[in-house]
Amino acid sequence: MNALHVTRQTRLSLTTLILLMPALVLLTAAPWWAGRADLRLMGEIALYMSLATLWNLLAGYAGLVSVGQQAYVGLGAYVFFALTLLAGVHPLAALPLLMLVGAGMSATAAVLLFRLRGAYFAIGSWVLAEVFRLTFAQVSALGGGSGISLPPAVVRALSDDRWMREAMAWWLALGAAALVIGVVVLFLRSRNGVALTAIRDNELAARSLGIDVWRTKFTVYVAVGALTTLIGALIFLQKLRISPDAAFSVNDWTAFVIFIVVIGGLGTIEGPIIGTLVFFALRQTLADLGTIYLIALGLVAIAVMLWAPRGLWGLVRDRWGLEIFPLSRRVAGLNEKGH
Amino acid sequence: MKTLSRRLFLTGSTTLLAAPAILRGTRAYARTPVLKVGHVSPRTGPLAGFAEADEHILAGLAERFAGGVENNGRGWQIQIISKDSQSNPNRASEVTSELILSDEVDIIVAASTPDTVNPVSDQAEINDVPCITTDCPWQPYFFGRGGNPAEGFRNTFHFFWGLEDVIGAFLSMWDAAGVTKTVGGLFPNDADGNAWGHPELGLPTPLAAAGYTLTDPGRYQPLSDDFSNYINAFKAAGCEIVTGNMIPPDFGTFWAQAAQQGFHPKIVTIGKALLFPSVIQGLGERGPGLSSEVWWSPDHPFASSLTGVTAGELAGGFTAATGRPWTQPIGFKHALFEVVADVVARAADLDDPDAILAAIRGTDLNTIVGPVNWATGPVPNVTKTPLVAGQWQRDGDGIDLKIVANATAPQIPLTGALQLL
């Protein structure tokens, strides 16, 4: 036990892991202890947390700074509406199908977008999202530029009972968030994750070590694309109404998400989680103030960038070396003198 | 110091335990019961012009509602909780669910464009909360939400005019002008544009029936920066009239390019873009002479059922309080709450959403924007208010919207004659 060895575990991560199970059980039981409004807010938080975690994997780990993730949110929403409304698929059965569509579309998009780098990639991804928006605005079966509502019948297919419907919406959101965070943590702990860290730190050096840079980034982009379509579908299952401007809104699905990740801490798993909580705390308290709310968000972003450029969690980690999710390796078994 | 005796402790704790049983009661037994009304409106963002008068109207209503509204012999307090949709349909849907779930409002009201009323109505429909909306033509509201004229909706109601009224009002203005019956159509690919340009439900069929030739080059994407194709098509067809439904920035672009490219129609009648005096002033010399639909003006011969003020007094009050010229949504915003107050007064049981729905269905009220009665609508859950056509004309130093055609609603007096551009 005292022998020198390399481990990822810390006392904090072990405690968290042990506490995670009861916490998940408690959250799963939320329909029994939370009110309808709280349940809906928590669902929204879970979905934003997923979006932020996914964007963080792209930008913080793979170095793919995309400002076009709304393309996949909107795609997921539209494919969900198309499957349930036009093809009559059950809402739950539609979810895995639309993830396949998301994976297929993002694989195609990746081939095109990966020819661009840095700022050009960012702009390219935005252009792609606009192409999606303009394309769906031409599909008159889905309302074209006017948008379309999800008929109550489709929502009632989930369950006839209102309580059950709201509980299911929450379980779907919670399940999606758990899936997303779980996939990202496992991915980063795998060989691919190590490769990704190497690429993030220095792409040229990583390539000279024999890492297939293109394939690693491709895997990340496609996985993020598929999961983002899932989140998009769940978001619009709550909103009940879709229109090209709402589904492909760069403000709602990318700008706010970037804000969350930057506030929380780019390149950490904990960052997007903390950032989402901060964002919702601000929104719940200030959103009724109109334009002042957006000014306040801007001020918070500026303040964090000036005083905590690595985000709130970056500040904590730099100071105390804390890590909730066991990702980085550290040497254990050293005594105080360092032997 | 006196210590707590066993007897006191027992009485005290029993009272504490038993208290909820007697204190709970229902709202109806409280001294003044409160009815909560949720209000969603685009206070900020590109649609903010529509909500410009919100604060003024709500302040006036708060004064009127301070005395409560009587229902079945009891005074009810009406509490209005207003939320900003930020002109964003996503946000409109979020705030509506907040109003329904956390504020637990009894009635939802919303106004201004399909981007506000449709998402709000959808949330109210699935959550079984009575909902009244206005300020959006009924076709994008009804058909845009997948409404079926045989069934209608359960919880959501709407009052405004429809495209058939716009067509009627525009035609009565154009017919009298004596210009060539060739019309150019500008319809964007959005909820309003698709409804206006729809081959059967929109402008094309009735215009053809009235002997007009419509040149419609197709839907353009909102916020376009080039209308050359449209201008060329209109020039080639010899259009003397231009119509459509646009947002102000698109109309500004089109109108500037029309001047540059030498296209001079004699009548330009555009829906939505030309409602606000600020837009017309922004067009400078080329503003006066443009025409638009008129849903409400200070000259409408109606008065509020709630406060008794006339249309002219309501508009004058807004100008006196804010120093800004009157705009059309003012009357409808006021009327929305007139309907609410009327429903509150008539409902058989305000604690029962079904009784509130029944009261809404039974509405027969003369408001400041005209009669509201859901029994007379073109489709279920929709009722119509009168519509006329007007033209922006110079009036002293400023500009004013004059009513120049009223064949569709003769009870509204003319205030000017159409002048060709």
From TrEMBL, chain A:
Q: Name one Pfam family in it.
A: BPD_transp_2
Keywords from the named record? Cell membrane, Membrane, Transmembrane, Transmembrane helix
Statement: the UniProt record of this protein carries the keyword Disulfide bond? no
Q: Where are the transmembrane segments?
A: 12-33, 45-64, 71-89, 95-114, 126-148, 168-188, 218-237, 257-282, 289-308
Subcellular location per UniProt equals: Cell membrane
Q: How does it sit in the membrane?
A: Multi-pass membrane protein
Name of this chain's protein: Branched-chain amino acid ABC transporter permease
Automatic annotation (TrEMBL), chain B:
Q: What are the record keywords, sorted?
A: Amino-acid transport, Signal, Transport
* Domain of life the protein comes from: Bacteria
Q: Which residues form the signal peptide?
A: 1-18
From which organism does this entry originate? Roseinatronobacter alkalisoli
Domain Leucine-binding protein per the UniProt entry, residue ranges: 35-393
Upper lineage is:
Bacteria, Pseudomonadati, Pseudomonadota, Alphaproteobacteria, Rhodobacterales
| Name of the protein in its database record | ABC transporter substrate-binding protein
The family this protein is said to belong to: Belongs to the leucine-binding protein family.
Pfam families, sorted: Peripla_BP_6
